[in-house]
Design goal:
It comes from Arthrobacter gyeryongensis. Belongs to the universal stress protein A family. The chain is of the alpha/beta class. It is 41% helix and 29% strand. A hairpin with a 2-residue loop joins strand 3 and strand 4. Helix 3 packs parallel to helix 5. The longest helix has 17 residues.
Length: 143
């Protein structure tokens, strides 16, 4: 098949499980994998004073998450890239999939039961608005 598979992640165990499913799917389809983490604003916080300052931004934190997950997925002969994208998670995944002309978006099924199903979930939003196929990975065992 080839092409690009996009997977959305945050720092949760369920996102890691979805990313592992995406890696396995990419390997089976001989596709590359692009790991995406969303952030909501450009806010940054400064810790310390003088020359001993540390600046932590939402974008930087999201990029760190995406990079860490991407590095953990290396191997199996697939190319793995990552990015941090501003926006709500579902919107960020859809935007990145469009930008990369992705073949598949992989998301976990977290919050697809109970009240989360009524209020909405990333998987539900992506499934209804995706420009490509969507694979919803079973991540319940990761909770």
């Amino acid at each position: 098949m080839s092409g690009i598979i996009v997977v959305g992640v945050d720092a949760s165990r369920t996102a890691k499980k979805a990313a592992e499913s995406a890696r396995d799917l990419a390997a089976a389809l001989e596709a590359s994998l692009h790991v995406v983490s969303a952030f909501d604003s450009d806010r940054a916080e400064v810790f310390g004073s003088g020359s001993d300052q540390l600046i932590v931004s939402a974008a930087g934190a999201a990029e760190h998450v995406a990079r860490t997950v991407a590095e953990s997925l290396l191997g199996r002969g697939i190319k793995v890239t990552f990015s941090a994208v501003r926006g709500r998670p579902a919107d960020a995944l859809i935007k990145e999939a469009q930008r990369m002309d992705a073949r598949i978006i992989v998301v976990g099924n977290r919050r697809m039961q109970g009240i989360g199903r009524v209020l909405g979930s990333v998987a539900n939003s992506v499934a209804h608005n995706s420009p490509c196929d969507v694979y919803i990975a079973n991540t319940y065992e990761a909770d």
